Amino acid sequence: MPAAAAPMRRLDFPEKLIQSGKGQTAQALLKRMKTLHLKLKELEQDLTEVKSLDPVRAPLINKVIMHHPDRGVKAYAACCLADLLRLYAPNAPFTAEELRDIFQFMAAQITLNLKAPPAPTRTASSKGRSTTDSQTAPAASQRITDVPYYAEYYHLLENLATIKSVVLCLDVPDWEGIMTSFFEGFVEIVRNDMSKSLIRHMRDIMIELLEESSAVPQGVMDCIITQFESRKEGDNTPAFQLIQDVCNKSHNRLLRSIYAHFSEIQHAHGRSGEATAADFDILADSHKLMITMYRYSPDLLINVIPLLEENLKVEGEVQLRQLSTKTLGTMFGMRPSVSGGVGDLAKTATGAWRSWVGRKVDKALPVRLAWVEAAGLILANQPDLRGQMEVELTDRIQDADEKVRASICRSIGRLDYETALHHLKLQTLQAVGGRMSDKKASVRSEAATTLANLWRQAFSAIEQDDSLAISQFAWIPSALLTSLMHRDVTPDTRSQTTSTFKSLILPLPTVDAIDEQVWVDRLLLVCIHLDDGGMKALERLSGLKGFRQGNLPYKAYVQTCEENNGGIIDGDEKAVKTKLDFIINAIAQQTFGDVNRAKKDLHSFAATNDPRLYKLYKACVDVQSDLKTLIKAKNELLRKIEQSHADILDTFTTLIDIASWNLINHSSIPPLIKRLQRPEGSSADQTERLTTIAYRLLGLLAKECPPMYKSHVTELVIVMGDKKNERLAEVALKGLAAVCRADPEAVPEDGRALEKAMQKAVEGTPMQAKYAARFIAFSKKTQAPGELLDDIIQLFPDYDEDKLFTYLRVLVELALSAPAAFEERSDDLMDFVLKEVMFKASPSNDDDSQDEWVQEEDLEILDRAKLLGLRICTHRALGLARHPDAIKAAKPTFDLLASVFTNEGQVNEQTGEGGKARHHLKLRAALCSLKLAHAKGYDKAMEWDFFESVAATLQETVFHVRNHFLQKLAEVLPLQRLSPRWGVLPVLVAKDPAHENVQLAASIMRTVVRTAASCTTEERIDRVEMPLARLLLILSHHPDLEEERTPIKEIAKFVEFFADCVATRDNISLLFSIAAKLKTVKDPMQDDSSNLYRMSEVAQIVLQNRATTHNWPLSSYPGPIRLPRVGFHNFHSNAEAEANYRTTFLSADAQDWLKVSGRRSGNVAGPSRRAVARDSKSTSPKKRSTKRTKKAPSSKKKKRSRKGEDSDDEEVDEESEEDDEEGTTGAESEAASAVEEDEDAGATAVEGRGGKRGAKTKAKRAATKKKAPATKRPKKKRKSGSDDEEEMDVDVDEEGKAGDSDLTDLDA
């Protein structure tokens, strides 16, 4: 049977709500209202007889109740009305006007009574007390549940939300106002201490109103937009959270209104065509609002995305495109706080994504900048888009505008460490590294700072030997350092990068946290990941390189400031001021981009005449200052300058950063020795590398800056006898030898030190023996070197082959350091060296390899000993350089070197050295000749044939021979200590098949030109322009030219190379005159000088073509031209010379070949990327075979100034002693370091030895009139973002506009 229907219930409330008399009191009415509320609350919908409710329906909406002053009466009335609507549902028992009043009444009760009370306003009373503006107002800290009739208001909201009777208000007049009042009221009353259920009821009411309304009232939109506009980062108010929840639940109902809101603003203020600054502000605010909405309610903007996409293509409205690019890009890169339909915007709005990506090449700079900024956000937050963004950013890092390039570097720098480590490609970071050589300072600074910051964050991981961190970031210090060595690096760039490196990579510790071991360990960690170029750059940046030569003017500056005495000079005023001006000019030119400002500030500092400032500055640049002293002095100096001379603070901050010993100093030595004694690393490999670097740095300190060891002599004496750690003993001996030689007062008094050194000299390793011998030579016991030599002589008869190198190393050292003791025993010593070493048959005579190179340690023992034998002979000659009969005494040495050259690397025809040994012997002979040339007497004694034999080393078939000799030239030529004729040698590699050699040679030539600028005019001409005459003389002796097998055009490339390095508008006339002058002299070494005259005409044509190409004036040189005496003789008469000058020696064909020679301005000092394999036989130049007897240097010598010769010979002794290091790899001069790592797209292919390779084939083809097979030249592509890239890939016209670029205004 079906269940019986539940009986209908009636309202049991017989009383009248509104009564007169005693029942009219507020308390009585309140009681009746409460009773009615409880009875209505108990009734259930659909189980109540609605007619029983009629008696209370009308009284509840009576003005007496709805306007009653008691809040309790009104609270119960609102609840009762809500219950009536529930019980009468679905038909409301009220008219539309009555319903309007009811909902307005309900909204008012909720808003007024649940609103948080304002904070009390306090006013001071006469007694110091405070009173509130209302004694009846609830306390500001009152909890929501303490609000009177809170339960009734909760019931009201719950009723409206669950029964959804609130939607009845949408059918009454002024429903927009009622709906708005609910929204505004709820936003106003919501607070943190409200229960979640109460807030949920308010949210449901608002959602229901939005869903059921026919339109969204403007007041509601204003309420929503106000909350988004007032949203502050990190301030998640309950009101905003409520609106956010409502928008996310009812976004479909708001789409049209949101679109209308933004569309109206865009058209009114963004596309008006006459937008003002105020319009732009309004537009910018609207875009900020979009971003906020997207972050918290992304689905609201579904219809707005196409509007932004359309804005990207608006022509002529740059500001609108800029804002839309920034806004849309920010949305692409943002992670909304809630997921929604447009959460992955790039996938859902593919058209907008493509349009936005296209803005990377917008012609408007602000648009491109906005794109880059947003792209960085995408790179950080969107893993799915990261790959594409990396490609796009790497592409645009070569943008024509510096601001874009800098912005890209900055955007990558904002990435967090984990993202950069795991999600960023190494190529992207390397592209940023390429910008460190950018032409603009802002780009360089951003690139360097970005990479340095990333390395700083990765330091701990690199220290722990994390392979991923090492591969991703460990290269950064090397890149920073290498960027300092580029050819065209400016002082401004150098100071910027130096500051970045020293502040982020190797910063000084703070005063209160000085730990020298930690500081040095960080340096070692950086060094173990540096490449060879980076390590050399670090050595130069540290201030060590150049210190021994006195090339650092920083200490001399403060000394001269003290002499200047604020302008009140006691001595020679003119000399002091001239010296001060010279030093200030040198510092400003080397260190600062703004030279004039730097000079002004340096003069201002000198004018202060503040002894305290001078003392602090001295402490910063003093080589004896320890780490703590340096830090305190630097901080105090800069603080005092800021207080009293703020205008020079920037200049001196940069100067102190560069001039102070803040990378390696006096305090570094004990920690380095400790790491050599007790290495610590995260792995065995890291430990070994740390030890190697510590060994190298200690050796560098001994070689370049011996004074740093002065206070560590005792410690060095202790460790020099270490038998277990050979490298530690070696660097200790090296340090002792260096400091004792530099400062005789530092020689230890303890005789045990000398005993240990004597023992190491005969029992230690070869390198230990070398430095022990040097220490002995400079010890206070003058007989010690002789005693050591006597001991070695006694060991000769029964010497152990394993100790042969040890004995020879001692002889190499003492021949130079103690020449008197050596010469006393020279008969026995040289007899052993020549008979037992040099003239002894080599066991490698069966080695017939021609072009193979091996390391020196891989040679036969006797062959290695012969290399040392050449050094012994050379050092003996240098030790006798001051002797009156020096030339006679050195003749056997010159004969020995000439024999090596004549016999193609063999000591003589009987010794029979093999091919590998011959390469080393030829190289060593050339190096020894170069060392001897430092003494003027020996240099003059070298005949021209001997000089050409040395020069021929640069055209040997083995790359390593040419490269090692060239690197040695890079060390010595810029110092201007050799005679000018040696300056022509680098030009002889112009056609070297290894492009690296060509670049290094060009760098040497340019460095020579730069360093010669400070010479007198006559000396500068002799060193810069006059080598052209010597070059043409050497080329005229070329065997290919003699046999007429090589086209003149190929020989002309040497002249072109010389012009590329030397020729300028100012000296082109002089060079042309020098070339022409050669036709008025004769070559004394040739019976027929026609080859010299042909080369003269070749040079004239090349120089004339070069002048035409550059529009340089080619006028007659006004001054006299004096050709070198060696190699050129005058005609017997002027008439004969004049007739020869007017004769043409080049054939018509040759002149035709030369029409284009010299018109190409070659960038020969480009990057160092080897064009061919170093040991490839097919590309090695063929050494000319000549048996022409080498003449020994003449014993005749002219009288010369003893003073000048002594001075030069002292320089030889200083310079040559360190040349005995194992191997000759690594150029240490600025020229060698300046070779860039960029690729010269315009450089022609190089060949070997003046084009001899293939000459016969060419001659045959010419004779048979056959054409050579055509070959295609591969196009060289520029590597995007490479370290060497300095030019932009966009042409820029005079007005700074990109011409023929890839920037477009709008998408096609």
Automatic annotation (TrEMBL):
Coiled-coil residues: 26-53
Compartmental location: Nucleus
Bias type Acidic residues, positions: 1206-1223, 1283-1294
Record key words, sorted: Cell cycle, Cell division, Coiled coil, Mitosis, Nucleus
Biased composition (Polar residues): 122-140
Keyword NAD attached: no
Major subcellular location class: nucleus
Keyword Transmembrane: no
A single BP term in Gene Ontology: DNA repair
Region named Disordered: 117-140, 1159-1308
Highest taxon above the source species: Eukaryota
InterPro entries for the chain: ARM-like, ARM-type_fold, Pds5
Residue ranges, compositional bias (Low complexity): 1224-1234
Record's GO cellular component terms: chromatin; nucleus
One matching Pfam family: PDS5
Chain intervals with Basic residues compositional bias: 1180-1202, 1251-1279
Record's protein name: Armadillo-type protein
Organism: Dioszegia hungarica
